[in-house]
C-alpha cells in the first residue's frame, strides 16, 4: 500500500486521518532524514506523544502510513497500563478512548554523515516542544488556546490570568540533574584524584556546594535510578532484585510518581537524555515519555547489555574492550519510543546528547518555560567510550577519556545556561548512581579511601560525589558540607524549590534547602543500606545514624572483585553480625576499625540502642512492592528496528 499524505498544514476544520491507519504528525521538514524503505514501520506517536490527535484540533499535519498487524514493530503492542495515585489530576493520562496505543516504530534514521539534530528542537525536530508550548497556552478555563475567546470569561480577565501564569512560570527555577554511571567517590579531581581531568565538575565544586556524605539508595543501577526519580526506596516500587534486562517484562510502575511528573504538573517542560534502565515492557510502556518526560533521547538500558566486541568505542576504530552481554539484540538508540539507530554508534553518542541538551535549554529559554533536564550519562560505565575530541587525551587511559568526555558535557550544559541567560535561575545538581565496578580494575573507577565498591553496602558502593551549583542562590567559595544527604532527597528538594505539590505517597526523602542555601542542619539523620537483592527478612544490611554506621549483614559482590580486600569479593558470603560491626565514619571513613572490638562502653551502648530503634521503626514503615524484575524476561520484548527479520537477535541492525 502506498503512503498517503494529507496537507502539510491543517486548521481546526481539517479532517483527521481515517480509523485503521497509524498516525504520525509530519513537520514541515524532517531534520533527521527518515528513509521510508519498503516494509518500514512508523510509530503512531510522533516524537513522544502517545495520544492520537483528535479530529478538529489544530496540528502541523497528518501523514498516514499503512496499518499493521498486532505485535509488529520494535515493541509488542499491549494495553497501556493505567497510572494510579498521582497527586494532581493534571498529571493523569487521557482516558483510554483518547490515547493511541503506540504502534510500530519508525525505520532507522539513516542520516548521511551522522544523525542530525535541529538547530531549534521546536522548529525543526517535528516541533518537539509543541506539546509543551500548547500546554502553557492552555492556561485559561476550558483549556482554550491563546487567542480564542473563552465563553463566559471576559477577555481582559483571561488576558490578566494568562499574564499571571506566565509570570509565575518565569519566576520558577530550572533544574539540570546530571547523573554519572558507576563513578566512584574518588574519581574526580575535586575529590582527591591526582590525575583525573575534570575541570568543569571541579569548577562547579569550587563555586557551589560539595557534599562529602552523599548516598545513593542502592549500589547498582536500576534501583538507584528508581529511588532518584521517585524519592522512595526501590523496594516500594518493586525495582529489585538486581537490574532490568533488555527483555524484562517489568519496569518502574506507572503508579509511581516521578520528579518529572511532579514538575510537569507545575508547568515545567521535561526532557531526558542518556541511560534509562527502568524497563521497557510491553508496548514500551515503561519508557520516560510515559513517566513524565516530554522527550527522551537515549538508550533504554545499560550500554553493556548487548554485544559490543565488534563495535567501535574509540575512533578511528578502537574496538570496545570485552564482549558485554551476548545473545541479546544490539544496543539501540531511541528517540522517545522510536529506534533511530541499532547498534548505537558510541563515538557519536555524547555529541548528539550534548546538541539535544543545548537546543532544549535554548528553546525553553526562548519560550520562557521552566524546565527539568535529566542528563543520565553512560560514563564511566564499562565498556568506556569517547568521541574523537577526547580519545587518547587522559592520563587515566580509556576510563579517563570517558570521564573527560562526561566532564566536557557538563561544561557544555553550563555554557548553554550562561548563553541563554539562565545561569542564575538554574540549579545544576550532579551525582553518581552507585560506586565503581572495581572488577574492571583500572577501567572500573576508584572509591578513593572508601571500602569496596559497586554491589556492596560498604561506603564505596553507595557513598557518591555530589555537587550543587546555582550561582544565583548558592554562595560561591569552596563550600563543603558534611551533612547527610541522599538521592532520595532530590524529589522533595526540587518539588519545594518549584513550589509544586508533593506526591501523596510515602516518601523517604527530605527537602535539603536548609543545607543548600545556608549552614542549616540536614533533616536527614539516618541512611539505610540495602543490598541489590533486598528482602523483608534481612531488612537493611547497615544503618547510618549521625557519624556512626552499624553493619548487621555484610556480603561481597562480583562487581567489587580484584580489590586487595577479600571482604569485597563476590565469593565472600552473606555474613550476619551480632552485635553489629560499628564504625565512626568521621574518624574512619574506610570502615577499618570496628569500635566494638575492644568492648561496649556506656556511650557506644547508647549509640547501638538508638540505631536499633531507628532500624525497627523504619522496618515497620517499609512496604515491599511486587518485584518488577522477578516478572521475568521475554526475548520478544527486546527492541528490534527490523521487527520481522531473522535470525534474531543478530539481524536487528539499522545503520
Short description:
This protein is of the alpha/beta class and 655 residues long. 22% of the residues lie in helices and 15% in strands. The protein is globular and about 70 Å long.
Which characteristics define this entry?
655 residues, alpha/beta, eleven-stranded mixed sheet
Unreliable stretches, pLDDT < 50, 5 or more residues?
1-72, 78-153
Main sheet: strands, sense, barrel: 11 strands, mixed
Nearest-integer average pLDDT: 79
Quote the beta fraction: 5-15%
Q: Indicate the radius of gyration in whole angstroms.
A: 25 Å
**Apparent shape:** globular
Describe the protein's architecture and organization.
The chain is an alpha/beta fold and 655 residues long. 22% of the residues lie in helices and 15% in strands. The protein has 13 helices and 20 strands. Strands 4, 5, 6, 7, 10, 11, 12, 13, 14, 15 and 16 form an eleven-stranded mixed sheet that branches. Helix 8 (346-367) packs parallel to helix 9. It is globular, with a radius of gyration of 25 Å. It starts with a strand and ends in a 34-residue tail after the last helix. The relative contact order is 0.14. The model is unreliable at 1-72 and 78-153 (pLDDT under 50).
How do the helices and strands line up, and which of them pair or pack?
Blueprint: E1 4-5, E2 22-25, E3 62-65, H1 121-124, H2 130-137, H3 155-171, E4 174-180, H4 199-207, E5 209-215, H5 221-230, H6 234-237, H7 259-265, E6 269-275, E7 295-299, E8 312-314, E9 318-319, E10 333-335, E11 338-341, H8 346-367, E12 371-376, H9 397-419, E13 426-432, H10 459-462, E14 463-469, E15 479-481, E16 485-486, H11 490-498, H12 513-516, E17 526-529, E18 542-545, E19 548-554, E20 575-584, H13 602-621
Parallel strand pairs: 4-12, 4-13, 5-15, 5-16, 6-7, 6-12
Antiparallel strand pairs: 1-3, 2-3, 5-14, 7-10, 8-9, 10-11, 13-14, 17-18, 18-19, 19-20
Helix pairs in contact: 8-9
Amino acid at each position: 500500500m502506498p503512503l498517503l499524505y494529507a496537507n502539510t498544514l491543517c486548521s481546526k476544520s481539517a479532517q483527521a486521518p481515517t480509523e485503521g491507519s497509524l498516525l504520525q504528525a509530519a513537520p514541515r521538514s524532517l531534520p533527521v532524514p527518515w528513509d521510508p524503505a519498503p516494509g518500514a514501520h512508523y510509530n503512531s506517536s510522533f516524537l513522544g506523544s502517545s495520544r492520537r490527535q483528535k479530529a478538529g484540533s489544530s496540528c502541523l499535519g497528518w501523514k498516514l502510513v499503512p496499518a499493521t498487524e498486532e505485535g509488529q514493530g520494535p515493541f509488542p503492542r499491549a494495553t497501556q497500563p493505567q497510572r494510579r495515585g498521582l497527586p494532581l489530576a493534571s498529571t493523569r493520562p487521557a482516558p483510554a478512548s483518547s490515547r493511541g496505543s503506540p504502534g510500530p516504530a519508525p525505520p532507522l534514521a539513516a542520516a548521511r554523515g551522522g544523525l542530525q539534530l535541529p538547530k531549534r528542537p521546536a522548529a525543526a525536530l517535528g516541533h518537539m516542544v509543541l506539546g509543551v508550548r500548547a500546554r502553557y497556552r492552555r492556561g485559561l478555563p476550558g483549556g482554550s488556546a491563546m487567542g480564542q475567546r473563552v465563553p463566559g470569561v471576559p477577555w481582559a480577565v483571561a488576558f490578566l490570568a494568562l499574564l499571571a501564569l506566565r509570570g509565575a512560570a518565569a519566576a520558577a527555577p530550572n533544574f539540570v540533574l546530571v547523573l554519572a554511571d558507576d563513578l566512584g567517590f574518588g574519581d574526580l579531581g575535586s575529590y582527591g584524584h591526582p590525575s583525573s581531568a575534570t575541570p568543569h565538575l571541579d569548577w562547579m565544586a569550587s563555586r557551589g556546594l560539595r557534599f562529602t556524605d552523599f548516598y545513593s539508595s542502592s549500589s547498582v543501577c536500576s534501583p538507584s535510578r528508581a529511588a532518584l526519580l521517585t524519592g522512595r526506596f526501590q523496594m516500594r516500587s518493586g525495582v529489585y532484585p538486581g537490574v532490568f534486562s533488555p527483555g524484562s517484562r517489568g519496569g518502574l510502575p506507572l503508579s509511581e510518581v516521578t520528579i518529572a511528573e511532579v514538575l510537569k504538573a507545575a508547568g515545567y517542560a521535561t526532557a531526558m537524555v542518556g541511560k534509562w534502565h527502568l524497563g521497557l515492557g510491553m508496548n514500551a510502556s515503561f519508557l520516560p515519555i510515559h513517566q513524565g518526560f516530554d522527550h527522551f533521547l537515549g538508550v533504554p538500558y545499560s550500554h553493556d547489555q548487548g554485544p559490543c566486541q565488534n563495535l567501535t568505542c574509540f575512533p578511528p576504530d578502537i574496538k570496545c574492550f570485552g564482549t558485554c552481554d551476548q545473545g541479546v539484540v544490539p544496543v539501540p538508540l531511541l528517540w522517545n519510543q522510536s529506534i533511530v539507530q541499532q547498534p548505537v554508534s558510541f563515538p557519536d553518542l555524547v555529541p548528539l546528547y550534548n546538541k539535544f541538551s543545548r537546543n532544549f535549554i535554548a528553546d525553553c529559554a526562548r519560550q520562557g518555560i521552566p524546565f527539568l533536564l535529566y542528563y543520565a550519562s553512560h560514563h564511566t560505565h564499562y565498556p568506556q567510550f569517547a568521541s574523537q575530541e577526547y580519545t587518547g587525551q587522559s592520563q587515566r587511559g580509556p576510563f579517563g577519556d570517558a570521564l573527560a568526555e562526561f566532564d566536557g558535557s557538563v561544561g557544555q550544559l553550563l555554557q548553554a545556561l550562561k548563553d541563554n541567560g539562565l545561569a542564575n535561575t538554574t540549579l545544576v545538581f550532579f551525582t553518581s548512581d552507585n560506586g565503581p565496578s572495581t572488577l574492571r580494575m583500572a577501567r572500573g573507577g576508584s572509591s578513593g579511601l572508601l571500602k569496596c565498591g559497586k554491589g556492596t553496602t560498604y561506603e564505596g558502593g553507595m557513598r557518591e560525589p555530589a555537587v550543587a551549583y546555582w550561582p544565583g542562590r548558592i554562595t560561591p567559595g569552596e563550600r563543603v558540607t558534611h551533612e547527610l544527604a541522599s538521592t532520595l532527597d532530590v524529589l522533595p528538594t526540587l518539588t519545594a524549590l518549584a513550589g509544586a505539590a508533593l506526591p501523596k505517597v510515602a516518601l523517604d526523602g527530605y527537602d535539603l534547602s536548609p543545607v543548600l542555601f545556608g549552614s542549616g542542619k540536614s533533616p536527614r539523620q539516618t541512611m539505610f543500606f540495602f543490598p541489590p537483592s533486598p528482602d523483608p527478612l534481612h531488612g537493611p544490611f547497615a544503618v547510618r545514624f549521625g557519624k556512626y554506621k552499624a553493619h548487621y549483614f555484610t556480603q561481597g559482590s562480583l562487581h567489587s572483585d580484584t580489590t586487595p580486600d577479600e571482604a569485597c569479593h563476590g565469593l565472600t558470603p552473606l555474613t550476619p553480625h551480632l552485635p553489629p560491626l560499628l564504625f565512626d565514619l568521621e574518624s574512619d571513613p574506610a570502615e577499618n576499625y570496628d569500635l566494638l572490638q575492644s568492648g561496649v562502653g556506656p556511650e557506644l551502648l547508647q549509640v547501638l540502642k538508638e540505631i536499633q530503634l531507628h532500624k525497627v521503626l523504619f522496618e515497620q514503615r517499609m512496604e515491599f512492592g511486587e518485584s518488577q524484575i522477578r516478572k521475568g524476561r521475554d526475548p520478544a520484548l527486546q527492541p528490534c528496528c527490523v521487527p520481522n527479520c531473522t535470525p534474531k537477535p543478530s539481524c536487528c541492525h539499522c545503520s
